[in-house]
Amino acid sequence: DRMPELLRTMPKAELHMHIEGSLEPELIFALAQRNGVSIPYASVEELRSAYAFTNLQSFLDIYYAGASVLLTEQDFYDMAWAYLQRAAADHVLRTEMFFDPQTHTERGVSMQTVVQGLHRACVDAKAQLGVDAALILCFLRHLSEESAFETLEQALPFRDLFIGVGLDSSEVGHPPEKFARVFARCRELGLHLVAHAGEEGPPAYVWSALDVLKVERIDHGVQSIKDAALMKRLAADRIPLTVCPLSNLKLCVFPDLAQHNLGQLLDAGLVATVNSDDPAYFGGYVNENFTQTFAATGLSAQHAWQLARNSFEGSFASADARRVWL
Ligand code: ADE
Ligand code: ZN
């Protein structure tokens, strides 16, 4: 079977990964020690054994606790550099990394500390690994739109260090339209726009992400399959879906990988991509997502090629870079 080798070595872009979700238990413990932060787990093994999730919220509680060890610019650099080395090993040529500033600014860490540390890792990735890395600032949707506006204000001095904004955290009960005004402002600022929608939430949230927020990509979007008119819209407008199969498995969005709908999305002509979401928590980086999903669902080499192509088409890389890749 040559499929795993094809999947591992094929050039690809990663469009949906939260940098705080790349924090491995070993690094959480090392940073806790370095910073004198106490965490409610005795060992790496005990922490990892807490990674048994039943839904999105059960994961988010542990994910935000893990991020509490990040204090200095060097911490953010070290976290991002560790991920970027794994991305390079997975033949990722381009990665657009989400970060959640409110998780840090609410603990008294400055926006500058977060952004500068992550940005310095992106610069080094290009020079030392040949990986083209960019940042997307995400607003936490369980917080208010006012807090999102405040976060945007704090980020504006670093406007050139991120390419767009997204919307993440607890989906159900926090529809996209809650953030209509702040996304309109980001649009005026020329930022790229994306949002998590249709992970656990209904197709109606995908519609409002498109029509109210005017996003260019949908993160997850797997629930769109329940709405035939929405599927037509996504295909007609070539709206990329950044699908994360191992995340969906671990958060019980699908009962097993064999029942994942990635193949149906591709066969319906959607610009679906494969991504790792929170690789340290969900059991694998992007290549693991490809190999496990293909093994479970029997997707073809044609599907693999389409996914790689979709990842570059869906990226926000420069027209010049996309010309080379496509
Ligand atoms: N933050 C990190 N991972 C997330 C996910 N899968 N959904 C929503 N918010 C997140
Ligand atoms: Zn996500």
Automatic annotation (TrEMBL):
Residues that coordinate or bind Zn(2+): H16, H18, H196, D277
Enzyme Commission number(s) from the entry: 3.5.4.2
Family matches, as Gene3D superfamilies: Metal-dependent hydrolases
Positions annotated to bind substrate: D278
Active site (record annotation): E199 (proton donor)
One of the record's GO cellular component terms: cytosol
UniProt cross-references to CDD domains, sorted A to Z: ADA
Cofactor note: Binds 1 zinc ion per subunit.
GO biological process, one term: nucleotide metabolic process
Alphabetical UniProt keywords: Hydrolase, Metal-binding, Nucleotide metabolism, Zinc
One Pfam family hit: A_deaminase
Family: Belongs to the metallo-dependent hydrolases superfamily. Adenosine and AMP deaminases family. Adenine deaminase type 2 subfamily.
Protein name as annotated: Adenine deaminase
Biological source species: Xenophilus arseniciresistens
